[in-house]
Design goal:
The complex is a heterodimer.
Chain A: H1 17-31, H2 37-50, H3 54-65, H4 67-75, H5 77-84, E1 94-98, E2 103-108, H6 117-120, H7 125-128, H8 130-138, H9 140-146, E3 156-161, E4 167-171, H10 183-189, H11 192-196
Parallel strand pairs in A: 1-4, 2-3
Chain B: H1 28-41, H2 48-56, H3 60-65, H4 68-82, H5 88-93, H6 112-116, E1 123-124, E2 137-140, E3 159-169, H7 172-178, E4 184-192, H8 193-197, E5 206-212, E6 216-218
Antiparallel strand pairs in B: 1-3, 2-3, 2-6, 3-4, 4-5
The chains are: A mainly alpha, B alpha+beta.
Chain lengths: ~200, ~220
């Protein structure tokens, strides 16, 4: 299973050994009645089209425009996010941490790949990479420079290593020049990377 | 366990390389592995801690070589074999053993989104009072369990301050091995970067970890 660059375009390339193994496994599990192939299609569709960073961006935009909401979010993020609505009926235990001119927060999972995917979608490959997991705690400023973000030495970098079933959402700083924008317009500005803490939100 | 998965503070993996316009899955089989894991997970034959430990137990060279979803495929097969959901003969032949019954899948197209977004709560009510309070000085214990643990090596033996009490949560070390919840208070503990990494670290920087009571002693 070393085919890191396999191409699985239907009918164009020869399927990789891994793709064939997965196909054989799925076929066995369907034959045993352990999984329903239509359910698998629906699950893939949910990950690809229904679960994404929009929900997290909405939470941040509301925190920017409603100081009372921001206070609730920083005190009890699970309940505050539920006001907007998680996808699905479950409530992951959430913690929100706020970036300011003096404090920059960064989220990592050094032990595996814990990530607030119900509000941000599935994590990007770099978040799960050995490079990010190893360096975020020992060299967070170097990691941020990999993303093109250089912080002043006086700014306190707070790294959150997700070792338990708590999921962290960074509330990035609201950029200058957005004073007249409403919640919908601000939601469009908030990026996934800013909510992990590897980027700032750019001014429009 | 002191495995290669416990990566915090290691050197040599190079720069972080973000990918522009990254797809959710890089090949169709990755989506199938994720979906199979969700659908098989709904049978509840193992918990999240046992599942993480199955990946941690991979040979270290494989762990580093495999892509993320290759690790998931490995785990799915290992866990199904270990719990008897499939046999080695069935895996080799690709077909159900003649005598094996045909089951009814719990996840269907109708409840798939619900099953996908299901995240069980790990918080529990316990009678025991928390041993520590916000502001208390603590030290992460020096432990080296061979089984699953969520206390990373880089924090063991280090001094920190209790930041916040999150109530009692299932203890992964017990849950992974013997499926005993052993719920106990979970705290966010704040460490200075200098305590963890030495004098070269920026004095303004902090690292926060979520640590269970059994990982901590008074300082």
């Amino acid at each position: 299973m070393t085919d890191h660059h396999d191409h699985d375009h239907e009918g164009q390339d020869i399927p990789s050994a891994t793709a064939l193994r997965v196909k054989a496994l799925e076929s066995l599990l369907v034959e045993k009645g352990l999984v329903d192939p239509a359910a698998l299609d629906a699950i893939v569709d949910a990950y690809e089209t229904k679960i994404g960073p929009r929900n997290g961006a909405r939470v941040v935009a509301r925190a920017w425009t409603d100081p009372a909401y921001k206070q609730r979010l920083l005190t009890d993020a699970t309940a505050a996010i539920e006001e907007i609505g998680f996808l699905g009926s479950d409530r992951p235990h959430m913690i929100a941490v706020e970036n300011t001119p003096d404090v920059h927060n960064l989220v990592v999972c050094t032990l595996c790949s814990c990530y607030p995917w119900l509000v941000l979608g599935l994590p990007p490959v770099w978040y799960k990479s050995s490079a990010y997991r190893s360096r975020a705690v020992i060299d967070p400023r170097g990691v941020l420079r990999d993303f093109g973000l250089t912080l002043d030495a006086e700014v306190s970098v707070r790294v959150w290593d997700s070792t338990a079933e708590l999921r962290y959402l960074v509330v990035p700083e609201r950029p200058a020049g957005t004073e007249g924008m409403d919640e919908d317009a601000l939601t469009d500005l908030v990026t996934r990377d800013s909510m992990i803490g590897v980027a700032k939100v750019a001014a429009p | 366990m002191n495995g290669v998965h416990d990566m915090g503070g290691m050197h040599g993996f190079g720069p972080v390389r973000p990918e522009a316009n990254e797809p959710v899955f890089h090949a169709a089989w990755e989506g199938r592995v994720r979906a199979l894991s969700t659908a098989i997970g709904a049978w509840r034959r193992w918990n999240i801690d046992a599942s993480r430990h199955a990946i941690e137990r991979m040979p270290p060279a494989d762990y580093l070589r495999f892509t993320y979803y290759e690790k998931w495929l490995h785990r799915l097969i290992v866990q199904m074999l270990a719990t008897g959901m499939i046999s080695a003969e069935e895996l080799a032949s690709g077909h159900k053993a003649d005598a094996a019954a045909v089951a009814i899948p719990p996840v269907t197209a109708e409840n798939a989104v619900q099953a996908t977004t299901h995240i069980a709560s790990y918080q529990r009510d316990v009678a025991a009072k928390p041993r520590f309070a916000a502001g208390d000085a603590v030290r992460a214990r020096t432990i080296n369990p061979e089984g699953h643990t969520r206390l990373p090596r880089y924090a063991r033996g280090r001094f920190g301050i209790i930041e916040r009490d999150h109530g009692a949560h299932i203890f992964p070390d017990s849950n992974a091995s013997v499926a005993t919840e052993d719920a106990q208070t979970l705290y966010t503990v704040r460490f200075t970067a200098r305590e963890l990494w030495g004098e070269a670290a920026n004095p303004a920087d902090r690292v926060y970890l979520d640590l269970w009571e059994d990982y901590l002693e008074p300082a």
